[in-house]
Design a protein that fits this description.
By secondary structure, this protein is mostly beta strands. It has two domains: about 1-85; about 85-120, no CATH class. The chain contains one helix and eleven strands; from the N terminus they run βββββββαββββ. The strands form two sheets. It has a seven-stranded antiparallel beta sheet. A four-stranded antiparallel beta sheet has the order 8-9-10-11, with no helix packed on it. Strand 2 (about 15) and strand 3 form a beta hairpin.
């Protein structure tokens, strides 16, 4: 499945599938010492492309500057350095396993994030 981020900034975006159905959205509140991103899961409306019927909070991300950020998901506090550890020279890539059992690569670019399925060559 291809996910489309509009705009491509991960902290404040709407994530749709190729048909234009809203699947997820993120919004980030900023304050002097805390940034929190709320990730919502949307139930697509089958009749109106690009609109959602309902949504529920899926996770919250507490961004930390000098320590690992924390993802609050399903009653757990997941430390990002352990849950999706950084890879690459500057730690701008992360690899994680999706609920479908496949491995995905998350690459943090200068203006956008790209999520793609990892291709394993035997």
């Amino acid at each position: 499945m291809k996910l489309i981020f509009k705009p491509p900034h991960v902290r404040n975006t709407v994530i749709t599938n190729e048909q234009g159905h809203v699947l997820y959205s993120t919004s980030t509140s900023f304050s002097f010492n805390t940034r929190v991103t709320v990730v919502k899961k949307h139930v697509p409306n089958e009749f109106i492309i690009g609109r959602a019927e309902s949504s529920e909070i899926l996770a919250k991300i507490e961004w930390h500057t000098f320590s690992s950020s924390v993802i609050k998901y399903n009653g757990m506090d997941l430390v990002t350095s352990q849950f999706i550890p950084p890879t690459g020279i500057f730690g701008r890539r992360r690899v994680f396993q999706g609920p479908d059992g496949r491995s995905y690569k998350w690459k943090i670019g200068p203006s956008a994030c790209i999520v793609s399925q990892l291709r394993i060559i035997p």
